[in-house]
Amino acid sequence: MALLTPQGAKEVFQLPRQRGRGRERLRRLLHGEELGEARAARRSILRDALHDSVHFAAGKGFPWVEVARAVQFTEELLVETTGCSITEAVTILGSKLRDYRRQFSTRHLLALCDYFHNTFMRHYRLYQYALGRDRGVQLTATHLEVCTPPQPLPLAQGTHRDGWHHEQQVAALRAAATQKRDSVRLLKEALRAEEARLLEKAFARAGARGDPEPYFPPVSPQALEHLVHEAIGIQIKCLGEQLQLKVRAAFDILDLRLQRRMLSLSAPHPSRPPGPGQRGPEDSVKSRKAQKGKKARAK
């Protein structure tokens, strides 16, 4: 890597740090090429350390010549301590400070020593892990299908909120009336089936009183009269239940029709959407409320 000149150190320090322009300028001055994904992460960490050393030295009032030397000092320290223990790293730092004692003033050399003790040595294991190992890149790609909303209909075909609620209520009443008719039909069929079962049971009892032969035995007049009375009673009972069912269903359906009629009488009048410069019903209500509030405050 090429050495940083004092003019280059001044340019890097004067560029803003937030947008990364200073780091990019430092890369160009040091002739750093664009690397692949695996090597770029490690080179980016090294470049961050060099960029921080530029701002530290310039912030402490180092001359620009010493700022460039501080960058060189940082790079050499990071390279030479790669793979070393922390004890060996402290020894390397001390020897490099002695080698550079003639290139920095005593005050600046002490400031540089404190800087590396408080930053590099404090996070030495983290630096070794980031700079001394190849990181495995795990990339997970998920393909998601985005469903766009349907194209809305023109506003001229829209329905007012009150009208829409009215249509929903009418549709609910119609569905209730249809469900009521279906339930009445099913109950009628169940009553007819029950009537047939009771009649068949009564006829079987009357036939079982005689001799158990494949043909029906003769029935006495008393038994026949009892069978007729029993069959008539079963039919009358089933007819009564059917009439009660029909009466209740008729009242329920009439009640639903009455509700539909009341809804049709209170149906909102269809209104067109307000044109440009016109007020809708909600706007008029809000304006009336605002006027009432102004009158109350005035009183």
Describe the protein's architecture and organization.
It holds the Pfam family CLAMP. InterPro entries: CLAMP. There is one protein chain. The chain folds into 2 domains: about 5-130, no CATH class; about 165-210 and about 220-265. Helix content is about 70%, strand content about 0%. The chain contains 10 helices and no strands. The chain has helices spanning about 5-15, 20-30, 35-60, 65-80, 85-100, 105-120, 125-130, 160-205, 220-265, 280-299. The longest helix has about 45 residues, at about 160-205. The chain is elongated. The chain starts with 5 loop residues before the first helix and ends with a helix. The relative contact order is 0.06. The model is unreliable at about 35-40 and about 210-215 (pLDDT under 50).
Beta content comes to under 5%
* Cα-atom radius of gyration: 49 Å
The overall pLDDT, averaged over residues, is 77
What gap, in angstroms, lies between the N and C termini?
A: 83 Å
The string of secondary-structure elements, in order, is HHHHHHHHHH
Provide the low-confidence segments as ranges. 33-38, 208-215
Number of domains: 2
CA-based shape: elongated
Number of helices: 10
Instruction: Work out the helicity level.
Output: 55-70%
What's the multimeric state?
Answer: single chain
Sheet/helix structural class: mainly alpha
Largest sheet, in brief, is: none
The count of strands amounts to 0
